Amino acid sequence: MFTIHKKEIMWGGRKLTLETGRIARQADGAVLATYGETTVLCTAVAQRQAKEGIDFFPLTVNYQEKAFAAGKIPGGFFKREGRPNEKETLASRIIDRSIRPLFAGGFRNETQVICTVLAHDLENDPDIVALVGASAALTISGIPFMGPIGGARVGYIDGDYVINPTLPQVKESKLDLVVAGRSDAVMMVESEAHELSEETMLGAVMFAHREFQPVIDAIIELAEKCAKEPWAVPEPEDHSALEARIRELSGAALSEAFQEPEKMARQEKVAAAKQLAKDALKDDESVNPQVVSALLKKLEKSTLRQATLKTGKRVDGRDTKTVRPIVSEVGVLGRSHGSALFTRGETQALVTTTLGTGQDEQIMDMLEGEYRERFMLHYNFPPYSVGEASFLRSPGRREIGHGKLAWRAIRPLLPVKDDFPYTVRIVSEITESNGSSSMATVCGSSLALMDAGVPMKAACAGIAMGLIKEGDEFAVLSDILGDEDHLGDMDFKVAGTSEGITSLQMDIKIAGITEEIMKVALGQAKDGRMHILGEMAKAITGNRESISDFAPRITTIKIPTDKIRDIIGPGGKMIREITEVSGTKIDIEDDGSVKIASSDPVATETALKMIRDIVAEPEIGEIYEGKVVKVMEFGAFVNFIGKRDGLVHISELAEGRVKTVNEVCNEGDTVKVKVLGVDDRGKIKLSMRVVNQETGEDISAQVAEKDAARRAEREARRAEGGESAEGGEGNEGGESRGPRRRRGPRNED
Question: How far apart are CA 526 and CA 421, in angstroms?
Fold first, then answer.
């Protein structure tokens, strides 16, 4: 029933298996990829006919994780997988960016790649498995895909590169780098790093490229056994005559338009130049308007590229290495905890930082398990930023991807939780856009964090590098414009500090770039990054000494772990009471760390006192202020520390003889007591008579002296016969009242 083809190799110390022919046989290409015990089903399907009027390649990549892959049941009311989470969106983008440039030119058939995680061993990340599986599925499908490609993750642990580190190893690594490419060139790079040098990063990329060559060979060997017949791709029509005519009509005007440095004015001139050809050809029935539009776009692209390659000058007048003018501002929003406005040319980001408590942490429910994230960065791209009007929708793949790139750049520089116990949220609103808004977000985020008083390790800046390549001739462009991104061959984003790189992302539109080009791009990016950091330093050079008055202050105390339940109370009653009375937010961790958050010092002090009262243990010899809660004939019970009561025996109420307790105190009275001791039943013995009730001073020494004097006096009188054997005083006539009747022990309870 099944015709199964399988290829197995050892890769990075684990077995990689590519299997086809058993599952999803109706897809154009289907591969079950297994690495370790992580399994991903990858399918590729393309429509047999392209839709009319489509002038782009409609490719969709969906990476999806199923809860059953890790033996879990989804949360939520419906108990089934819903909209893609952040990990799924980012993995989809990685695969899409890796394969998109390799489809045959002119192929316009709608194509869909679906990668479904079926098993997760909690060691091997499924995203690399999905990338390899997608490449294999496309290669055997017959769809005009100029692959295969390979992909790998690289870690950097103890000074050594590690291929496909396990999930526990990634946590220890100074680098999390994903690379995809063909046998002869690199296609895609995505990374997070801890201030690594350009040389180290380039070495990691090339290490990955070498290490996934066996994977490419395995896919080729699998395809040799079972690949379907390649689809026929229609030969492109010869429009050379029409192309020459369009160049004659609009070429000069386009060249002039690309000399306009201002974006909106340039777009108007470009549109007017294109309209010249459209107007001249509109009455020609032999000319297809869609063909005219495609040729005009081609002419626009070649005009910009040739001008840059021949003259070294770009559309805004800069050379290839110059960064646009920069203006950095901080503290632009009064009520926010930290804010910055970063403007680079016609790209602008308004960035805010908000500080929260542990209760504001984001709960991440992943296949690997649930964890809490204390740093969030959200990127928004409203339509007005590019002069457009359109519907506002929830964040799409682009917004999520750009935000994650900036998040990766900033996260290695944040202080650890023990040093800065705040939850941090950054929001970047792109208010203008003309190239590299994600890198403007990195710069603005760094400024906003410092403005908020977050003790970062160093300031961070980002820059986007472009590429124009014609044959063996190429030019690397620093700080690219939107047109250079759109009409160029590469978008290479580099972020980092003065010490090294923290994030790297590369997308290309051609069939790979060489190590030489990457080396040039990294060198130029470093120069540009240092320049940007210098411009940012004009606004702020380090974090502010204190956080905003509007941000919560977090005070941390340590309590014994066995006291945690006392603070929480039955059903959370006690912790609710503390937060309601004090108006603070309180987080309690398993190690006994209690974090109290409030912008009001009085509220913080109230919460601290309530907590200390609960956890405090009475110390013998210490003086406390308490309240009389119950009066008995043998003494008074005093609540003196938290919910803890102690007994002041009638003999310890005051100096001299006390006939009744009410002579000294009543219920509700505030008194000062000294802890005398704790009996074997845990009962606490208190004294009022050895404490000055007005000042709270310990007068034990004075009382002891008086007691000693009285005892001496009694001994003297006894010796003279003036006092009975039982210590009672004689009557006024000097006659003894006789021995007192012995009583049993007092019942003090």
Answer: 32
The torsion of the CA quartet 47, 48, 51, 55, rounded to 10 degrees, works out to 80
Sign of CA pseudo-dihedral 482, 483, 484, 487: positive
Q: What are the pLDDT digits (tens) for 461-479?
A: 999 999 999 888 899 999 9
| β-pair partners for 349 | 342, 430
Sequence-distant (6+) residues with CB within 8 A of 242 are: 287, 291, 292, 295
Residue 128 and residue 27 share a domain: yes
Query: Each residue of 357-405: pLDDT tens digit?
Result: 988 999 988 888 888 999 999 999 999 999 999 998 889 999 999 999 9
Q: Is the pLDDT of residue 315 over 60?
A: yes
Let me know whether 285 and 422 are in one domain: no
Alpha helices in 160-288 (DSSP H): 167-172, 198-211, 213-226, 240-257, 263-281
Nearest to 684 by CA among 614, 617, 613, 610: 617
Based on the fold, state whether residues 460 and 332 are members of the same structural domain.
yes
Indicate if 303 and 451 belong to the same structural domain: no
CA distance 483 to 544: 38
Residues 306, 432: Cα–Cα separation, whole Å: 28
Across the chain, mean pLDDT equals 90
Whole-angstrom distance, CA of residue 430 vs CA of residue 714: 92
Q: Which residues contact 721 (CB under 8 A, 6 or more apart)?
A: none
Q: What is the DSSP string of 62-74?
A: EEEE-GGGGT---
